Amino acid sequence: MKIAAADVVVTSPDRNFVTLRITTEDGITGLGDATLNGRELAVVAYLREHVVPLLVGADASRIEDMWQFLYRGAYWRRGPVTMASIASVDMALWDIKGKAAGMPVYQLLGGASREGLLAYGHASGKSTEELFESVRDHLEQGYRAIRVQTGVPGLRSIYGIASNTTSGGNAGVRYDHEPAQRGARPAEEDWDTRAYLRHVPAVFEAVRNEFGPELPLLHDAHHRLTPIQAASLGRSLEPYDLFWLEDVTPAENQEALRLVRQHTTTPLAIGEVFNSVWDYQHVIREQLIDYVRSAVTHTGGITHLRKVLDYAAMYQVKSGMHGPTDVSPVGMAAAMHLALSIHNFGIQEYMKHGARTDAVFRQSFTFEGGLLHPGDAPGLGVELDADEAGRHPYEQAYLPYNRLADGTVHDW
Ligand code: GCO
Ligand code: MG
Fold it and tell me: Which of 104, 131, 148 is at the close of a domain?
């Protein structure tokens, strides 16, 4: 099982994706997602310059050993670029192991713990009417859990609102929310926390009145609040019984959640920008969160995220893996294999990719009746069409950033 070749494929069908493809001497290929939104080429350089040369000639069957070698052997540990790079190697090796065994990866991880994965989609609208329409559309697509984001009166643009008028190669593609815009500079958005805090509870009241008490509803505050503002939002949303409230405070400060937790019983999810178990050390052990938001792609792969989730299980904390469009179909498939096998699965974010992306990455996972399933193809079950990928060269794109009314940069 020696690695004969490894190459990094950068493609931009509807958005940019970075994929590592490893080929063994006996011709088995494995794929790994290494996409880091807005900083893609940093990961490409890390892989091409420092990882690929170490892979050639190595034993593809030694997944744990390769993980430890790339993590400990670099001396410089953690961080999104490093951990996305390691994640892509890890995913590709699990893909190869599954193909060699003739089994889907979830079987190698212990087999299925459930029939399918409850998925949530992104409903959004600038106004309440637009939002209701979007919720209805998601229900028609089969979603059984829905994230709700709306515009805030007085703010021009805001995180989480769908747009089908994006420029450049994306024009006409409807994503429920694709924040990264193609172009040489990031878009500037505006923010006002007080206006947001006044508006959001009324939106949830309207949604509950329209759609009833049963539908699981989620909301993302996208790191913008102070601990006391977050506590106040959590409390004001309690009557609407959220499935979770996500990223209430900037994620670096694990202690902030102690204060939030003292004041509200609204369940909390955090971690899409975390990249190792150390980022979760206190929030899990002190039971300050209810859901782990990491993606396989950004947290060192299946090998490392499985350890995070096993640790979380000891404290009744569940998975809620990140699944925006910037996680490629390969990263999504890896998440589904892991989610199907673990006991402490909570929910899976699923936004769907555009048609061009689906043509580059042929997938065997399914979404039926609100449930995802990774499928039973050997390995991860995603194949890359290299010709299709080659038709869509990389295009610079950035996530937006925020300024307050007085010009101060704020968390986006
Ligand atoms: C989510 C996330 C995304 C991120 C995006 C950044 O909950 O899905 O917050 O929308 O903003 O993935 O790259
Ligand atoms: Mg989020």
Answer: 104
Indicate whether 208 and 346 sit together in one domain. Answer: yes
Among protein residues, the one whose CA lies closest to atom 11 of ligand 1: 179
pTM attached to this predicted model? 0.96
106 classed as catalytic: no
- Tell which one of 16, 43, 177, 272 to mutate to probe ligand 1, the residue whose CB is within 8 A of the most ligand atoms: 272
Catalytic residue (choose from 159, 175, 196, 291)? 159
Cα gap 239→280, rounded to integer Å: 28
CA of 220 to the centre of ligand 2 (A): 6
323 CA → ligand 1 middle, Å: 8
As a whole number of angstroms, the distance between CA 352 and CA 370 comes to: 13
Count structural domains, the chain: 2
Q: Determine which residue's CA is closest to atom 3 belonging to ligand 1.
A: 324
User: What confidence tier does 157 reach under pLDDT thresholds 50, 70, 90?
Assistant: confident
Q: Are 357 and 13 in contact (CB under 8 A)?
A: yes
Q: Are strands 188-190 and 401-403 parallel, antiparallel or unpaired?
A: parallel
| Residue 401 annotated to the active site | no
Cβ-contact 341, 309 below 8 angstroms: no
Determine the atom of ligand 1 nearest the C-alpha atom of 293: 7
DSSP 103: S
Residue-wise pLDDT for 356-399, tens only, equals 999 999 999 999 999 999 999 999 999 999 999 999 999 999 99
> Residues 176, 95: one domain?
no
Q: Which helix (H) or strand (E) holds 201?
A: helix 193-211
pLDDT digits (tens, 9 = 90+) for 307-331: 999 999 999 999 999 999 999 999 9
Per-residue pLDDT at 162: 80
Q: What is the CA(249)–ligand 2 centre distance, in A?
A: 11
- Residue 206 token pair: 């309207």
